[in-house]
Specification:
Radius of gyration of chain B: 18 Å
Shape of chain B: globular
Oligomer: heterotrimer
Chains: A alpha+beta, B mainly alpha, C alpha+beta
Number of strands of chain C: 29
CATH topology of the largest domain in chain C: Aldehyde Oxidoreductase, domain 4
Number of domains of chain B: 1
Order of helices and strands of chain B: HHHHHEEEEHHHH
Largest interface: A-C, 56 and 63 residues
Strand order of the largest sheet of chain B: 1-2
Strand content of chain C: 15-25%
Radius of gyration of chain C: 27 Å
Helix content of chain C: 25-40%
Strand content of chain B: under 5%
Number of helices of chain C: 20
Strand order of the largest sheet of chain C: 10-11-8-18-15-16-17
Distance between the termini of chain B: 29 Å
Structural class of chain B: mainly alpha
Helix content of chain B: 40-55%
Chain lengths: ~160, ~210, ~750
Amino acid sequence: MAFTVTINGKKTSIDVDPETPLLWVLRDDLKLTGTKFGCGAALCGACTVHLDGEAVRSCQIQARDVDGRDVTTIEGVTGEASATPVAKAVQAAWIKLDVAQCGYCQPGQIMSAVGLLTQIPKPTDDDIDKAMDGNVCRCATYHRIRAAIHEAAKTI
Amino acid sequence: MSRQRTYSAVAMSVVAAIVAVLSIGGVGQSLFSEHDGTLISTAKAAEKNSSVADASQLFSPVAAVLRHPRCMNCHPRDDRPRQGDDRHPHLQNIVRGEDEMGFVNGRCTACHRDENSQHSGVPGAPTWHLAPLSMGWQGLGDAELCATLIDKEKNGGKDIAALVEHMTKDPLVLWGWTPGGDRTPVTPPHPQFVKELTAWADAGAPCPATAK
Amino acid sequence: MTYTDLPNKLTGIFAMPVPKPPDESRRSFLKISGGVGAGLVLGLAAPLPKLGPTGAQATSGALAPNPFLRVAADNTVTVIIKHLDKGQGAATGLATLVAEELDADHAQIKTEFAPADPIKYKNFAFGVQGVGGSTGLANSYEQYRTAGATARAMLIAAAARTWNVKADDITVKAGVVSHSSGKSATFGELANKAAGESVPDKPTLKDPKDFVFIGKSFPRVDSPAKVNGTALYTIDHQFDGMLIATIARPPMFGAKVKSFDASAAESIKGVVKVLPVPQGIAILATNTWAAIKAQRAIKVDWEKSGAETRGSAELVAEYKALLDSPGTKAREEGNLEDAFKAAVKIVEADFEFPYLAHAPMEPMDCVVRYDGSSADICTGSQMQTLDHATACKVLGLKPEAVNLHTVWAGGSFGRRAIADSHYVREACDIAKAYGKAVPIKVIWTREDDIKGGWYRPLYVHRIKAGLDKDGTIVAWLHRIVGQSIGAGTPFEALLVKDGIDSTSVEGANNLPYAIANIRVDLHTTKGGVPVLWWRSVGSTHTAHATEHMIDMLAKEAGKDPVAFRLAMLKDKPRHAGVLKLAAEKAGWGQPVKPGKFRGVAVHESFASFVANVADVSLRDDGSVKVERVVCAIDCGLAVNPDVVAAQMEGGIGYGLGAGLKGAITLAGGEVEQGNFDGYDVLRISEMPRVEVHIVPSAEPPTGVGEPGTPVVTPAVANALLSGTGVRTTVLPMNKQRYKSQS
């Protein structure tokens, strides 16, 4: 079935089985591999993208759910044209503090951090604990994720 | 098995109660229609009805359903939804947020869609969300639970008819009977619950006396 | 021994200390440097099927005097990373070493993973190419510095020749070669000329006092790509015509396919082929979703007669029964029997440690392209030589016909360092069985990963210790029961000596405390659950048992846990050093806020010394919240202090997640967990504040990837012992609820 979805600001036509998770549409069909597969069950956050501006688990969103809607991925928040000031601040803070270790979860972490800082520009530790708990990092870079969110908040 | 036996025993007493209510004809009806949803009036109703049915008997099958993990998990008395039959706090530090739909990034619908996911096991139903804090039920005894349920100040302004409607037709409530995956469905079957619920409602939604 | 026999037998040593690269091997790589170009230019993003000889041109105009770096005309310096980087910072660490001796600018450094080559890129600790045991930086320290110094000397020689000046008057700083006359040139401008200079035999290495990066700061080379989503992991590789493979795997360890019905799977759109392979039933599909759906749709009747059928409870009971009889001796000093008789107080505790899954964020995966006469393998390969040799063997190809491309790995924690190379083997098995020359990407689901075995083994310990009237430990009996990680693997000869797998007892048989009468023994059990090293290996359990026991004894003796330890560490200055540093920084001895408890632990692993002081509180439900961990580490010279700190922070989080919540359990031989719901891992709301303090040192660098992991759990348990009086002998901690005594 064909669907039209705006991906990172660009109207895109996809023709897939309607129940295909958005995660695999992005990765397999659109070659946007920054969004990661970690659990397939909304338990790890590696596949976090924004759907109409709100963080969602792309492994649980089906192709039919996104028809006519806006999807932003890590490639979108990185793109010169599509990056928001919040996304730029988040990524700069991540680099400044060398947050990443294996890095596999970090696109999801960044999408969640952008989501958080967009809605709460000066989050408390408690806000971070609530808004970021869905994103697992097995390298346990949490200490620096927290610091980087505060760092980004300073510059927004 | 023992649970089933308990339920059938309860069901039998409910049948008896229904018969009792029917036998006094319009009294129950008028009480029902006049019901203003407050605890006091219900207590009065229950008082009036005491000759025909033991209020606690009518409400207890309803309470048993409300206490089922499938119902109770989304009616916490704090900000954390629960999961599983052991009702552990929802993983990922999920909290209710300002609109009962979750906090930033942890919105209910970020993961819970309109139906159960066949593949991942993530449960789903339309408008997945928490009951308001005022409708927190965890740890309540039958009397308090009943009082909370029918209190319009707490239940979102629902009269008894609306409550029955909610528990009879709301897809999110109905999900409890078809939760999918390895989740235990609410028992007894929904039609039987509706009968029990209706019996209680028809009797004027009497609440049991406050805890012994 | 032929190359493909390598997986059956490893040479070299696996244990620390890490030998320095012998001069002989350094010369040998320099000698063959002329032909090295072709092997070096393996662009990660290049299409897999086209890889191979075509890369040679890219080196034209470049200075590539050895297999470890390439200075190109565009002024980039590409450091060739011989080890997998799975987050521990190998790429940054090795790049730091080259950049230091080359006097390069951070901005011009790029990295590239080395191809498989057991000679050029061997780990001196193993004798083959691979990384593990926190050996990555230690075994490369001189090698990569020398590589940088070599190129630097050649750039200077080229500048001297071009400018007709003396080499001695030339300086190099931040990627610029300058002469006192004012002449200067970039590396890129000199690269082509420098390539014509002779390769110095023994370039001079810097005096450590002149270091600009080592011991100071060198930001991670991989941060930008990992932050913008462009870093390519195995799972991200996509090629035209590629098929995705999943495998329906046995539900019990040792179960085999009896029969299967693929009709439902085959009817799924996108499924191309269903193939029986030794690992189960493989499904090949044109897209990942179809491959995942088909894996679930396939109906397999499993032959379970040869499978492990015991559950965790039965295993624990069997193991515990062994605690009463002496095991194989790993260490014995003094006369234990007499010492126990003379002791005035005896403290005894039995400990239980569950199986643990590594659960790296990127589940196992491997890409293979095989055309009958050559193959490319692309994966986060941690043991390149084993993986490469395994591929050669399965595919029946000569080593030169198989290109192994190592790529970023989304974590490992030991999981990718696998003796039987199964994630490469199965990909080759599938490619061979399919027989068509298309790239195939095998992916594991999270459930495959959690249920798939290769766990930290289940262990049971008993420690019995005696105190004399002064509260000094005079007797120590430590008995360990559990599976061997090394037995039956190519690592057996390295790890198992006289019936003792060193990974079963490490951290216990080298107990640092001065105790006159001591015995450590081991019962090695057999079972069908495949086991593996899990970040910090034996120390994951021995550190907890020993360090928690020490606090139980300190309590019985009425002594302060830090002072109690220090009194027994008079001959162990590095243990004592980190212990004192952590205690001081944490404010040990000062009163703790009401409702908070403080505990300490110290442990050596992988030649590094770590002490943790943990501040702990209880939630309303009696579960444990760790608020702060102060960590001190002595890892010799800290090449990259920020990476060291990151590894401590991460190691603490990884260890704490397991200590608080981690357990893989079996019932009737089947794993009860399947994803991050059942196998719950540490999340940000549970991460303590971590403060890392590095002991200044000029000793050779030692490992940091693992030593941060095992110390936090005993430190937390000791805090709980002090605040609640409860011993934490059964892990994970969420099995019990604690109640404050105050």
